[in-house]
Design brief:
Distance between the termini of chain A: 50 Å
Number of strands of chain A: 13
Distance between the termini of chain B: 27 Å
Pfam families (chain B): ABC_tran (PF00005), oligo_HPY (PF08352)
Number of helices of chain B: 10
GO cellular component, one term (chain B): plasma membrane
Strand order of the largest sheet of chain A: 7-8-9-3-10-11-13-12
Shape of chain B: globular
Shape of chain A: globular
Helix content of chain A: 25-40%
Subcellular location (chain B): Cell inner membrane
Oligomer: heterodimer
Membrane topology (chain B): Peripheral membrane protein
Strand order of the largest sheet of chain B: 6-7-8-3-9-10-12-11
Radius of gyration of chain B: 21 Å
Number of strands of chain B: 12
Number of helices of chain A: 12
Protein name (chain B): ABC transporter ATP-binding protein
Strand content of chain A: 15-25%
Order of helices and strands of chain A: EEEHEEEHEHHHHHEHEHEEHHHEE
Order of helices and strands of chain B: EEEHEEHEHHHEHEHEEHHHEE
Strand content of chain B: 15-25%
Helix content of chain B: 25-40%
Chain lengths: 340, 323
Amino acid sequence: MTLADTTAPDLSSAANTAPVLRVDDLHVHFRIPGGVMRAVDGVSFDLRRGETLGLVGESGSGKTMTSLALLRLLETPPAQIDGKAVMFEGRDLLRLPEREMTDLRGSRLSMVFQEPMTSLNPIMTIGRQIDEPLVRHLGLTAAAARARTHELLGLVGIPRPAQAATVYPHQLSGGMRQRAMIAIALACRPSVLVADEPTTALDVTIQAQILELLEQLQQEMGTAILLITHDLAVIAETAHRVAVMYAGRIVETGPVAALFAAPLHPYTEGLLRSIPRVVRTPAAELPEIPGFVPAPGTLPAGCAFAPRCAYADAACHGTRPALQPALSDREVACWKPRHG
Amino acid sequence: MAEQLLRVRNLRTYFPILSKVLRRPVGHVRAVDGVDLDLAAGEVLGIVGESGSGKTTTGKTILRLTEPTDGEILFESRDITRLPQREIMPLRQRMQIVFQDPMSSLNPRMTVGRILAAPFEIHGVARGAEARDRAAALLRLVGLPAEAAQRYPHEFSGGQRQRIGIARALALRPRLIIGDEPVSALDVSIQAQIMNLLKRLQGELGLTYILISHNLGVVSHICDRVAVMYLGRVVESGPREALFFDPKHPYTEALLAAVPSPDPGHTRRRVVLGGDMPSPANPPGGCAFHPRCPRAMARCAQEAPATTTLPGGHMVACHLYPA
C-alpha cells in the first residue's frame, strides 16, 4: 500500500465534482439562563474532493462549533445540534448511531487540532497511537501496522521514524508533535480532514513547514481539508475556497483569489483591510472595524454586522439577509454588498 | 540628537537547571545570551523572534522583573543592573509593561476604577477622590466610557481589557513602555484598534516603546527600528525599512519569507526553514543558527560571528558580513 496510489485531484474541474461533505443548515444551540445561545445558526457548505475549504472567523464566530458539531464531538446536552443533514459519503452524520460515528472518526473522517498536546495521549508512545487506528479501523496485523507507522512518520517529515515511534509526546517539540498528530489523522487515508487552527500555536517558520506538509499530503492522497482558522493569510496561501463566518453564520463564500481581491461583504472587506502588512510606508493609521463582535445570545434583529458596518441603513438593521448566490461561484449575505 | 533613554550591554539572563533529587544546578538555560540594545527617547523598537528566542526574557530583565546574570542596563544614564529591589520600586513609575493577556494581570475582584486608582495610591501620588479623578482621566485617554470604572474586568471584551491594561501602565506617566505581545491575543478587527491606540498615545505622550512580538506585520507598522533575536542573541538590527526590505541575516530572510501573505497573487517565496530551534540549554557551537542556515560555511560551526555595523545603523552578526 502506498500513499500515492490516487492521482492528484484536478481542481480546475472541482466545481463539477460531487461534494464529499455537504453541510446543510446546521444549528448548534445552548440553553442559557433566560434564553438560547445560537452558536451556529444555519450554516451550509460543500467540501469537494481534494479541495481545501477555509472556514475563517474571529473568536465567537462559531467556526470551531461548526467543526465539533459535524464531527459529533459536542456533548449533547448541553449542546443541541440540529440541521437538515450533514452528508458524508452517502450517510447523514447527524443521524448516524454513535458506534458508527466512532468508527468513521479517525478513519474516513479525521481531525487535527491546535494543541496536539491535548489530543495526544501523554502516556502512550507516538508509535502505539498510530498503530492503534491501523489495527482497529484497517484490521492490519501488529507487524504490518508497525511498518506502516514508520512509513507515516517518515512521510510527515519526522527524522528517524523507527526511533521517533518509541518516544512519548512530551519528548517532541511543538512542530514535531503537530507532525505526529497529522500522521495519526492521515493513518487511515481519510477522505476528509478537519484541521482546526493546526498552525496557530506554532512559530512562523514551523507553520510554513506544516502548511507545506498538509498541501503535499493532500496532493498525494486527494484528501479534502476543512481548514478552520482566524488567520486570513493562512487561508490565502492554503485554501482553494473560503467561507467567512460572523456571529454564527456564513456571511460570504467564494474562491480565494476572487474573494480576497474583491470582497463582497463589508465585514470581509474590513477584516482584509485591518491586517497589518509588511509594507515600505505604512499608513499612519490601520483601518479598524469599530466596536466588537456581539456576544452570542445578544444578536441584533437585523444583520448581525450592521452595528459595526459603515454602509448599514434601515433595511440592514431591520431584517437579516440570507446567503444568496452572487457573481460566479460566490455567495454573500448582505443587503448592500460591495463590488456588487 | 535625541536623549538616549536606554542602553543595554552584553545582557545575560541564565536560568539554572536543577538536578532532580539534590536540586543542584547541573546546567543553565541561556535565555538571554549577550544582548546589546540602544533606545533613544521617543523611539519605538521592535523585538521579533520565535518562541525560545529570549525576547520576553530580555524585556523582563530590562524592567528588572527577572534578575540579570551579567551585563549592564542603563536607564536615563543610570546603571540599574544591580539596584536593590526597594530602589526598583520608584523606578517602576518610569518604566512599565503591558502583557499579552490582560485578564491574567488584572485583579478579577477589583473594579476597573480601583485597579486604575491603585498605582496612584501605592506610589503615594494621589488618593481618594483625586485618585478616582485620575483613573477617570485614564479611561478617557484609552477610549473607554466613564461607566467602565464601576465594572469588573470579566465584563469587558478582550480589546477593552487590553485598553484597561494600557491605561494602568500609563497611570504614573512612564517614559518607557514594554509591550509583550500586546495585540497577539486579540481578533484581527480589534488588533487594529489597539495598534492605533498605542501609536496615538506614543505621539501624544512622547512615549518610548519596546514592542515584543512574533507578528512581523504588527512590528512593521509601529516600529522605527527592529531587532531580530535567535537563541538569546540579537542576530540583526536596524531601521524598519532596511530590516524588512533589505535583510542581511539568513535567519531574518527565512523569517520574513515564512510569514504568509493575506494577498493572493503575491508570489509565494516560502523558503521553508528546516528543523526546529535548538534548546537554549544546549545551543550549538559557533553561530547558533548554523545547523538550520541555508548559507552556512565551515567557519560558522567553529566560531560565533561578531556584530558588524553596516551603513545606516544596520547591524548583523553573521560571517557573510565580515567586520
